[in-house]
Each structure stands twice: as C-alpha cells, then as structure tokens.
Design goal:
single chain, alpha/beta, ABC transporter transmembrane region fold, six-stranded mixed sheet, 21 helices, 10 strands
Length: 592
C-alpha cells in the first residue's frame, strides 16, 4: 500500500469528484429535483402533526379542513415519488456516463504504455484494474455518491423540521451527529487496510486465473493441476481472510453501532417530553413528529453506513486505477520537428547499447548497415540479443546509447504511425483475433479491399487452405485461431504483413513453427516478399538465411562475427559450430 499512501484517500476522492465536472448542469438539475422531493417528504409529518393537534385531540372534525389536509398529504406523497424517480434516473445516468468515460480512458492508457511496463506487470492484475476496480468505482457513483447526496439533503431537512417544531430539542439532538461521525471515522480507519488487501488479492486471483487458462495445455501435459489448485487456494484463502476481517468491522461498527445511537436518541427525545410534561402540557402531534423525524433521520444514516463499505472499496479501487492512469512508462514518442517519411528503407545501427532493466546491458555497441533491398540475418543462441534489435527497430523500447537511422534520419524523428505503416513484422508466434479471416488480414483497415486481401493470401500461398474453409474468407476464427495449425496461423500473419506493402520487413524466426513441407512452400513467397525490401531476419534454421546479404552472429549482446554464409563457414567460428550442430560434419565438408 506504500505507493497508494502517497495518493491520500482525500486526494483520490477529490479527483473522483472532478470527473463529475462535465456533467455539472445535469447534476444541478438532479440536485434541485432532490430538494423538491425532500421538502415534500418532510412536510408530511408536519401535516399529520397539524391534524393531530388541531383536529384529532380537541375533536374538531371539520370535514373540509381535514379533506384539504388529506389531499395535501396525498399530493405531497405523489410529488415526492415522482421527484425521487427523476432524481434517481438523473444521478444514475450521470454516474454511468462518468464510469463509461473512465473505462475508455483506462483502456486507452493501457494501449499507450510501453512494453517495458507490461514486462513487469502481470496481465491478470491489469485486467482486474480495468474491470473489477472500475466496477467498484461505478458502485461509488451509482450507489454511494447519489445515496449520500440524497441522504445528506434529507438529514439537513430533518434537522430544519426539528428546529421548526422545537428549537431546544433540535439543539439537543445535534449531539448525535458527532457520535455518528466518530463511528464512520473509526470504520474508515480500520477497514482501509482490509479493503486494500482484498483488491490486491483479487488482482492476484485474476493473474493466477489468467496464467492457468493461457497455459492449460502445459498444465495438463505436465500434470500440474494439484500445484496450481493449491496456489490458487492459498490466494483465495488470503482474499477470504481479508473479506472476513472487513465483515467483522461491518458487524461491529455499522448497523449495530448506529442502532445503539438510535436507541439513545429515542430515549433522549422521550425523556425530554416526559420531563416537560411535569410542568407543561405536551402536544401529541409534536411528539409524533419528533419520533417520526428521529426514525426518518436514522433510516438514511443506516443506508449511508451500509454504503460505507462500498465507499471504502471504491476509494481503494480508484487509487489503483489512478495509479495506472498516472503511469509514466509510456511507449517511446516522437522527437524533433517535421514528419519524415520512410522512402527507401535503409537501416543503420551505430554503437547501440540497450538494457531492459537499466542494470544489465542486453545489447552492447551494436553497429551494422542494411541497405535498401538487402537481407540482414541475425543468428545466435537464445538470449544473445536478436529479438532486442528488432524491438528497438520497431520502437517498442528506447535504446540507452548510440543511434539508429532509417534513410539517414534518426529513428526518434519518425512517428509511430509512420514506422508501423512502413515496417512489416512477422513473429514466431502470431496472434490471431477472434473474427473472420478477412478482418484478421486487413486488421480493420478499410482502405484495404477484399481483392487485396485475397491477393496477399495467394502471394503467401495461404489461399489454398482458406478457400476450403466454410465461408472461405468470411470464416469465423476462434480465440487465437486455436482451430488452425501453427503453420496456417503463420501464413495468415504473412498475408497480414504483405497486404500493407511495407518498405522494411522484420522476420522474427517466422518459419520456426512451420513444418518442413509448409516451409518449402512459403520460401518462394518469402523470396518475393523480400524483393525490393530491406529485411531483418532472425533465424533459428540456418538453412533459411543462406542467401542473406549479410549475417550477423550475436553472442551475449555483441556482434562477434559478420559476413555471408560461405564467409562465415570458412572462418570456422561460432557460426560454423552452429551449422555443424544443425547439419552434421558431412554436409559441412561438402559445402566447404
């Protein structure tokens, strides 16, 4: 809770109130209607008091006067009901609009954050903030603030009516206000920690659930169900313990404590009238009205105290959401003036050094040039820094030292939109969306026609299996394209890339998950894709990059060898050893 303590709960609450500013006119109207409804509510006991004291007690049954009082009471009740309905609709409508805007803001913020943020943040925890925490804030606006406003207005009205009936007793009843305030203060103080723990454990539950669902195949394959069940049960138990602690606070400091104060107030009012009756006659109507107002006073108090738990949850949840909205780990932005465009696709790395955590460099003094139309292949063992180079080129991260140029312009000067338009990225494990094939290829870019989608699919030889599907290009895919083979998903990602006609092509082990037969079928397509484009290819299979114009061999973040396939074999270095492992001594000797 240390980080959230920096953002004091009062500051969080003020920030939540500021979200209501665009809806000021609607809220003023709702507040005005609420005042009318409250006045209508409070006039009812006064009318009954008048009937008791002026007509019932002295037995003055004037039909016209009594009928007029009855009609007034009925009209006031109808006005109160109508006004309450209108103000509830207005308050709730405003609350839902506020939370709708907040959810969009949070969702947009997440999309603006850099990949470095996601490297250190569990996905399940983020989902919890966007869904569960915003839902808790919605409860604040819908159930808490509107209820508090209504009840506060009503309480002020109750005290005004009490003072109208008897000033001394009204002043006497003011003593219950600090008692109720003390109960609320104690509850807020002791419940905040348990509510924070509840939200944290709920985030952990979501994170564990997300991890389990994403890795279900591995969990079942390696018989990890019992371990995951135990871990989930431990987190769930901690969440349950936090809930139970809060329930104890609710049971002690909310309804029972308020009921105790209510009994004290009732005894106080009855004692006041009882003592007064020894010296002066007591008006039964005034006694009825006071008892009625005391009851009406504690009805909203009980409602408000029951909402305190929701209020506390919402404040904690809001602090977590605002912490996300204030996150500064944004995606790298554009620097410099103007909007340069990529026309040729020449890439230059000059002494580039990069670290993910700011402590350990994963790239050290990387320098190379990829001229337009050339293919530069990156090879090396796992963790050598191959993917880090493509991450920098795509501007997913900012490098620590050195310079990267595209067409002799610093990469920071290009907008992210220009880089995404002119660079095509094919990953080892492509992401397929739950929609039809055409949308997966065009990615909702309506400038791309259906004919261009089909041409791109035919270009990478994906059209043969697409046309066999029910509905063809309109065939709906499941989540992540689970019904397709890895090779088919990869072919779709090839089509998705080529349909945009990029100047620079980045292949991150694009054929690693494709079987040999499928790989042979798309090598020709890859050759056509690379023609006229600058290509950066990360390769696991050395056979796929033998025709590269330049091969860079990386080891522990440094380029240790560079040259063509034949040149590197003749050097008998690291590349030669890697080739031996994949092809054997005999083939190497033949090549040599």
């Amino acid at each position: 809770m240390d980080e959230l303590q920096k953002m004091k709960q009062w500051q969080v609450f003020k920030r939540l109130l500021r979200l209501m500013k665009p809806h000021k006119k609607t809220l003023i109207l709702a507040f005005s209607i609420l005042i009318v409804a409250t006045v209508a509510d409070l006039l009812g006991p006064i009318i009954i008091k008048k009937f008791i004291d002026d007509y019932l007690t002295p037995r003055h049954f004037y039909t016209r006067a009594i009928t007029a009082l009855a009609l007034m009471y009925i009209v006031l009740t109808m006005i109160s009901a109508a006004m309450h309905y209108l103000q509830v609709v207005l308050f709730q409508k405003t609350a839902l609009e506020i939370i709708q805007t907040l959810r969009i803001d949070v969702f947009s913020k997440v999309h603006s954050l850099g990949l470095k943020f996601f490297d250190r943040t569990p996905v399940g925890g983020l989902i919890s903030r966007i869904t569960n925490d915003t839902e808790a804030i919605k409860d604040l606006y819908v159930s808490v603030l509107s209820t508090f406003v209504q009840n506060m207005v009503f309480l002020i009205g109750v005290f005004a009516a009490m003072f109208y009936l008897n000033v001394n007793l009204g002043l006497f009843c003011l003593v219950i206000i600090p008692m109720i305030a003390a109960v609320m203060w104690l509850y807020r103080r002791y419940s905040s920690r348990s509510f924070f723990n509840m939200r944290e454990k709920l985030s952990e539950l979501n994170a564990k659930l997300n991890e389990s669902l994403q890795g279900m195949a591995i969990i079942q394959a390696f018989n990890q169900q019992k371990r995951l069940k135990k871990e989930f049960a431990n987190i769930n138990q901690a969440h349950n313990a936090a809930w139970m602690k809060n329930i104890k606070y609710n049971g002690l400091l909310l309804r029972p404590a308020v009921d105790l104060i209510y009994m004290f107030a009732l005894i106080m009012v009855l004692s006041f009238f009882g003592i007064q009756s020894f010296s002066n006659p007591v008006e039964i109507g005034v006694l009825y009205a006071f008892v009625n107002y005391i009851e009406r006073f504690f009805e909203p108090i009980n409602t408000m105290t029951q909402r305190l738990s929701m209020f506390q949850q919402a404040i904690i949840a809001a602090g977590r959401v605002f912490q996300l909205l204030d996150e500064t780990e944004l995606a790298p932005g554009t620097k410099g003036e103007g909007k340069p465009e990529i026309t040729e696709g020449k890439i230059e790395f000059k002494n580039v050094t990069f670290s993910y955590d700011g402590k350990q460099d994963v790239l050290k003094n990387i320098s190379f040039t990829a001229n337009p139309g050339e293919t530069v292949a990156l090879v090396g063992h796992t963790g050598s820094g191959k993917s880090s180079i493509t991450n920098l080129l795509m501007r997913f991260y900012d490098f620590t030292q050195g310079e990267i140029f595209i067409d002799s312009v610093p990469i920071q000067n290009y907008t992210n939109e220009e880089l995404r338009r002119k660079m095509g990225l094919v990953l080892q494990d492509p992401f397929i969306f739950a929609c039809d094939i055409k949308k997966n290829i065009r990615l909702h870019n309506h400038l791309i026609t259906d004919d261009e989608v089909k041409e791109a699919a035919a270009f990478v030889q994906a059209d043969s299996f697409i046309e066999e599907l029910p509905g063809g290009y309109d065939h709906e895919l499941g989540e992540r394209g689970s019904t397709f083979s890895s090779g088919q998903r990869q072919l779709l990602s090839f089509a998705r890339t080529i349909v945009c006609n990029p100047k620079i092509l980045i292949l991150d082990e694009a054929t690693a998950n494709i079987d040999t037969q499928t790989e042979e079928a798309i090598q020709t397509a890859l050759g056509k894709m690379r023609a006229g484009r600058t290509t950066i290819a990360i390769a696991h299979r050395l056979s796929t990059i033998q025709d590269a114009d330049q091969i860079l061999v990386l080891h522990k973040g440094e380029i240790v060898e560079r040259g063509t396939h034949q040149e590197l074999l003749l050097k008998k270095g690291l590349y030669h050893k890697m080739y031996l492992l994949q092809h054997g001594n005999e083939q190497t000797a033949d090549v040599g």
